[in-house]
Amino acid sequence: MSGLVEQIKIDEGTKLMPYRDSLGFLTIGTGRCIGKIGITEEEAEYLLQNDIQRCIDDLKSYDWYTMQPADVQEALINMRFNMGLAGLLKFKRMLHALTQRDYGTAAAEALSSTWAKQVGQRAVRIAGVFRNAGR
To answer: What domains does the chain contain, in order, with CATH numbers?
Structure first.
């Protein structure tokens, strides 16, 4: 099978970004046509787990993350997942409040953002996690 894998890689090429194949179908990886069949639940779960680990790797060097209880860390991972590290780092007052363990202020800062207006209930839920961490 290793010979087959190598032949297919040669024939198809490997592209890490989506592209249109010669018939116009959305394709990714080594000839994986996602335009016709999508992905399986297992593949979606695998990708999600990899993405979450990438978020954790991005955050684990920040004290405002590592000093938090697990539920607050998960909320921060959720925010990082949604807006990327650069987006999360723009929440300077919220992150400062988390460093001070001022969870009420952190919640208020999260909710008073453009992000909160965009994501609705997600922001309300995350702010609730912050607020409840102080109790």
So the answer is: 14-59 (no CATH), 62-133 (1.10.530.40)
